[in-house]
Amino acid sequence: xxxxxxxVVFVFSLLGSSVTWSGVDGARDTVIKVVDAFRTDIVxxxxxxxxxxxxxxxxxxxxxxxxxxxxxxxxxxxxKYYRRASPEQRIRFASVTKDTLLKTYGTSLLELDxxxxxxxxxxxxxxxxETKVDVDFQMESGGMxxxxxxxxxxxxxxxxxxxxxxxxxxxxxxxxxxxxxxxxQNKNDIELAISAWRESLAKKS
Length: 205
Fold this sequence. Notes:
- This protein is 52% helix and 19% strand.
- It is α+β, with helices and mostly antiparallel strands.
- Helix 2 (21-42) runs antiparallel to helix 4, helix 5 (70-78) packs across helix 7 (171-185) and helix 6 runs parallel beside helix 8.
C-alpha cells in the first residue's frame, strides 16, 4: 500500500458550478485515456516490465508526458521558496522529482489488477479551476485505492493533471509541507534542501 501511495504522488481545487457538464467531460475523457494506457501498456505487460525498469520508466513517461507538467508540479511543491531558487536549481529540482517519481510510480502500477480499474462518473463539482475525476483501483493483493485526479484545462485547451488525492490524502499539499520542513531543517539553504529532497524521494522508490 505504501508503495502505491508514494508512487502516485508525483503525479498534482475544483471547477466552478457555472461551467457546463459538456466542458468538464473533457477532464474525465483525459483520465480514461491515461487509465486505459496504464492498463494496456503497463499492467498487462508486467511480466516483461518487472524485469526491465528502464523500459518501464520510459513507458510511464510516455503516458504522462502530455498530461503532467513536471515543472509546474515542482513549482507548487517548492511553494514560496520557488522565487528564491535560481533557474538551475529549479531545473534540477524538477528533474530529481520527475526521475524518482517515474521509477516509483511505474513499480506501483505493476501491483494493480488490470481488469478492475474503474473511472467513476463525474460527481458534483465545487468552485475553483479544477475538475475532480475519481478512479477506483483494485490491487492484486486485494486492497482498494480511491484516487481523485484533479484536472485543470490549460490555455491551449488541454486537460492537465494538477493534483492527486489518494484515500483522502492530498499529496500536493503533503509534498509542499515536506519541502518546507526540509528548508527549515537545512537553515533555508535551497541547495541543501534539494539534496535532502532527492534523498527523501529515493527512499520511497
